[in-house]
Amino acid sequence: MPPAKKRTRSYDSAKIRAAVLAQFGHVREAVGAFTPGQLDGPTRLGEWRVRDLAAHLAWMVDSVPQLLAAPERGQGRLALLDWPFATADAAERIDTHTRGIDASDLPALYARVADDYGRAVAGAADERLLPVSFGAMTLADFLVTRTVELVVHTDDLNAATGADIPYDRQALAACTRLLADALASRAPGGAVEVRVPPYAVVQCVEGPRHTRGTPPNVVETDPLTWIRLATGRAEWATELDGARVRASGERADLKGLLPLMG
Question: Best label site of 7, 34, 96, 227, fewest CB within 10 Å?
């Protein structure tokens, strides 16, 4: 019998709206303190320098007021759980756009984006449809995707600069949960329980479903390790060998399902 279709997780809109602004605020404070030498430093994202990554982060938030200002589109709806997989083919377009951003005055750019975001979302309805590149998404769903962009690229900035930019708890939780739910969507089933405490527990992978007691196949890791695995910034075998992932059971091998985002 095929597994029952799971209900899509709901998110508290007010908390997500605030989390986007809070995480962007953490990044803004750090970027404003970077020296020219730090901004010219390399990142783990190919040829991008820190300045490119900082500009990209600003764009990820700036996209909210930009899309809210565009005509509403109702066709080609993109579900929230489909968004992580839709991004895989957009790398070239994203790179081109990012390199075209004027990043000569990052503090001014970040100040303008924060102001525009706050004004734009203040009176916008959650169900407002935004014409994103991959299809139409509700504002509520799109804002959840902004937590993923912000958290993932905050981690990239930390890796590049050692800045130790903090993570807003709500943003980190939403990012973790969306990527965990995307895994369950990609590999539906109940044979493996994936635990990312304290934010997410999902069941996935076809096979015998447990109903009580300790599951026979369990994967457990921390939120940042999970996010790095899901986005291709960490390798399954490396994290397993380093004890940052604990996997038990003959089906508890997720390397063939990762990464979820390109």
Answer: 7
pLDDT, tens only, 189-244: 999 999 999 999 999 999 876 655 677 899 999 999 999 999 999 999 999 999 99
- Greatest alpha-carbon span in the chain: 59
The structure tokens listed for 164 are 């130790």
- Give the CA distances from residue 42 to residues 47, 58, 95, in Å, rounded to whole numbers and listed in that order: 7, 18, 15
CA 34, 38, 41: angle at the middle one, nearest 5? 150
- With CA atoms as reference, report the closest residue to 111 among 40, 35, 34, 21: 21
Query: What residue type is assigned to position 80 of the chain?
Result: L
Q: Can you tell me the distance from the alpha carbon of 187 to that of 164, in angstroms, rounded to the nearest whole number?
A: 34
Give the closest residue to 116 by CA, choosing from 69, 160, 53, 165: 69
Q: How many angstroms separate the CA atoms of 21 and 7, rounded?
A: 28
Look at the pTM and tell me if it is higher than 0.85.
yes
Gap between the Cα atoms of 66 and 72, Å rounded: 12
Determine the Cα angle at 107 with ends 105 and 108, to 5°: 70
Amino acid at 132: V
* Nearest-angstrom CA–CA distance, 210 and 217: 9
Burial of residue 2, with CB atoms counted within 10 A of its CB: 0-12 exposed, 13-18 middle, 19 or more buried: exposed
Q: What is the pLDDT of residue 90?
A: 87
